[in-house]
Write a structure and sequence with these properties.
The protein has about 250 residues and is mostly beta strands. It has 2 helices and 18 strands. The chain has one domain. Strand 4 and strand 5 form a beta hairpin. The longest helix has 13 residues.
C-alpha cells in the first residue's frame, strides 16, 4: 500500500535551502499517512517558529530579533470532512510533549513539476521525499512561550488553530520559538484526496536583547538596518501550500 501526494508550491522544510530557512520566521514540514477509516488521511504538521536574530554593535555586540507573538494554522480538506484534530491546549514556558506513530503506508511527496514565481513559470528540480511503511515516527514538541493558548475552530472541511496571548498586564509579551505539532484526520467521499495548508504569523515585531518588543522609532531604525545589510524576510505574511493525491 502506498500514497503519493503532489505539493505545490514546494515550500516545506526539506525542499528549502539553508538560506531560505534562515530568512523565514515561520517554517512548515508536512506529512501524511493512510488512516484505517475508509478514504481518510491523517495529516501531520510540524510548524517551526524561527525568530531571526540581527547582531548590532561594535564593541558590545547585542542581538535583536524579528519574531511573531502569535499564529494561525489552517488545514483544509477540499470537499471533505475533518473528524479528528489536535485539541485546545495551554502552551506554557518550556512546554513539551511526545508521541509515537507507526506509519501504515509508504509515502511519496513530490513537488509540482512547474512552479510560478513572479509571473514566471520554472521547472522544479527538487527531489521526491519518500517515507517507508511501518516506520516509527516520534514527534517531540519543544515550545517556548508565555502562557499562550492553542485554540481550534472546526468548520466543515476546514480546521483552524490560533495561538494567542491571554489578556492581562501581567503577561510578558515575547516571541514564539520552537516546534508545534498538529494533526487532522480528513475524509473524502471522492477518490482523489486534496486540500491545502496555510500558516500565517501574526503581530510580527522587532525585539531587543531581552526579547521584549521595541518601540516604533527603534523599529524604524531596525528596518533601516535590515535594508542596509540586504537582510530579507521571506513570507512575512505567511504562505499556503496545496496537496493532491497522485493516482497512477
Amino acid at each position: 500500500m502506498g500514497l503519493c501526494l503532489s505539493v505545490d508550491p514546494p515550500l516545506i522544510i526539506p525542499w528549502l535551502s539553508v538560506e531560505e530557512r534562515q530568512e523565514n520566521i515561520l517554517l512548515l514540514d508536512f506529512d501524511a499517512d493512510i488512516d484505517p477509516a475508509p478514504h481518510t488521511l491523517r495529516v501531520d504538521l510540524n510548524v517551526v517558529f524561527n525568530p531571526i536574530s540581527v547582531r548590532r554593535g561594535t564593541i558590545t555586540h547585542v542581538d535583536y530579533y524579528i519574531g511573531s507573538t502569535g499564529a494561525e494554522i489552517i488545514i483544509e480538506a477540499t470537499k471533505g470532512t475533518i473528524h479528528d484534530h489536535t485539541r485546545a491546549a495551554k502552551l506554557d514556558v518550556s512546554y513539551s510533549n511526545s508521541s509515537k506513530i507507526w506509519r501504515k503506508a509508504g509515502l511519496n511527496l513530490a513537488p509540482a513539476v512547474k512552479v510560478k514565481i513572479e509571473s514566471k513559470e520554472i521547472e522544479s528540480k527538487l527531489g521526491t521525499i519518500s517515507r517507508d511503511a511501518a516506520d516509527e515516527k516520534l514527534f517531540t514538541a519543544t515550545f517556548s512561550s508565555e502562557e499562550r493558548f492553542l485554540a481550534p475552530v472546526l468548520i466543515g472541511d476546514t480546521i483552524k488553530w490560533t495561538i494567542t496571548l491571554p489578556r492581562g498586564e501581567k503577561v510578558i509579551r515575547d516571541f514564539l520559538i520552537g516546534n508545534l505539532y498538529l494533526f487532522a484526520k480528513c475524509t473524502w467521499k471522492s477518490a482523489i484526496k486534496s486540500g491545502s495548508v496555510s500558516v500565517h504569523p501574526s503581530d510580527v515585531r522587532f525585539f531587543d536583547s531581552n526579547r521584549r518588543p521595541i518601540g516604533s522609532m527603534r523599529s524604524i531604525l531596525m528596518q533601516y538596518v535590515l535594508w542596509k545589510r540586504s537582510v530579507k524576510i521571506r513570507n512575512i505574511d505567511g504562505f499556503r501550500i496545496t496537496y493532491r493525491e497522485v493516482v497512477s
